Amino acid sequence: MEKVIIDTDPGVDDAMAVLYACLSPEIELMGLTTIFGNVTTDIATRNALALLEIAGVDVSVARGADKPLVQEQREPAWEVHGREGFGDVPAMSPALSAIDETAAEFICRIVNENPGEITLCPVGPLTNIALALRLDPTIASKVKGVTIMGGSIDEGGNVTPHAEANIWQDPHAADEVFAANWPMTLVGLDVTHQVICTPEDFAALVPDAPKLGGFLNDAAQFYFQFHRKVDGIYGCHMHDPTAVISIAHSSLFGVDHKPLEVIVDGEEVGRTKISEKSDRNAVAILREVDVAGVQEEFLSMIKSGF
Ligand code: BDR
Ligand code: CA
C-alpha cells in the first residue's frame, strides 16, 4: 500500500484522480490538500470535500494557499473545467469541512508522523509543496517520493507554447520544488497527452458504477467539449489520474533521469527544462507510457466502484 497525499485543484481530471485513489487497493489516501488553479482555493476545498463525500471516504482535507508565491495570480481555468470545477455539474454543498491546519502544516505533520512512507502527489500548482518545504525543510529527507503532474520536456505547453498549466500558475514554487533534494517523479504532458479516454469509455463506467462513474461521466462532458474545440481530439487527456496511477504502477512507464528547472519570467515563463545547474538533483521524468495499460487501470478501478 502506498500512503499518498494528493494536493489538488478539482477540476475534472482531479476528480478522476481522487476517485481512482479512493478505490485503489494499492493506495492508502492519507488526505487531500487544496490549491487554486483550475478553480479558486475556496472552490477547490469545497470540491475536494464533495469528492470524499460521494466516495464515502473519511480523510482530512486541508485548505491551501490562495495565491502564487511571487507572480500575480492568473485566472482559474474556467474554460477547461467549468465555473464550479466539475464541468456543468452544479455546485455541491458537502456536509464535511476542512481541518484547521493549513495544507503546508498538514503535509509536514503527516510526513513527520510517517517517515519514509508518504508520497506527495501534487496535481495542481506547486505552491503548497513549496510552502511545506519552507515550513519544514527536513520533510525532504522523510518523504518516500514526490510525484508531480506538471510540465513537459519535448511536448511543449498547454497554456502557452512553452508552459503546462500547473507550472505556469506558480513557476517560482515549481522551481523551489525542483531545487529540493528529494526523490521526485515528473508526470508531464510528454506522457499525459498520450493517455486519452473517450466519451464511450466514460459512458461505459455508468452501468457498473452508477454513482462514481455516473458523476465522472457527467463532469467529463464539458471537458470533452473543451478538448474537441481546443485540441481537436475526441475524448480527454487523463493528466491527473495518470500521475496517481504511476505511483503504484511504475512499470507502465519509461523514465529518464535529469535535473530540472523552471523559467520564471519572460516569454517562456512556466517552461520546464533540463537544468545545467550543478546543485540540482535528477528527477525521474516519465517519457514513455503503456497507454492501454493506464486506460485499463483507470477504467477498471472506477468500474469496481459503486
Ligand atoms: C493540469 O492542469 C489542470 O487543468 C489539470 O487538472 C491538470 O492538473 C494539466 O495541465
Ligand atoms: Ca489538476
Descriptive report:
40% of the residues lie in helices and 18% in strands. The protein is an alpha/beta fold. It has one domain (2-303): Inosine-uridine Nucleoside N-ribohydrolase, Chain A. The strands form two sheets. The chain has a nine-stranded mixed sheet, sandwiched between helices. Strands 7-8 form a two-stranded antiparallel sheet. Strand 1 (2-8), helix 1 (12-23) and strand 2 form a beta-alpha-beta unit. The model has no long low-confidence stretch (mean pLDDT 97). Bound molecules: beta-D-ribofuranose and calcium ion. Calcium ion binds next to loops.
Give a quick rundown of the structure:
The chain is α/β, with parallel strands linked by helices and 306 residues long.
Which key phrases capture this entry?
binds calcium ion, 13 helices, 9-stranded mixed sheet, 306 residues, 18% strand, two-stranded antiparallel ribbon, Inosine-uridine Nucleoside N-ribohydrolase, Chain A, binds beta-D-ribofuranose, alpha/beta
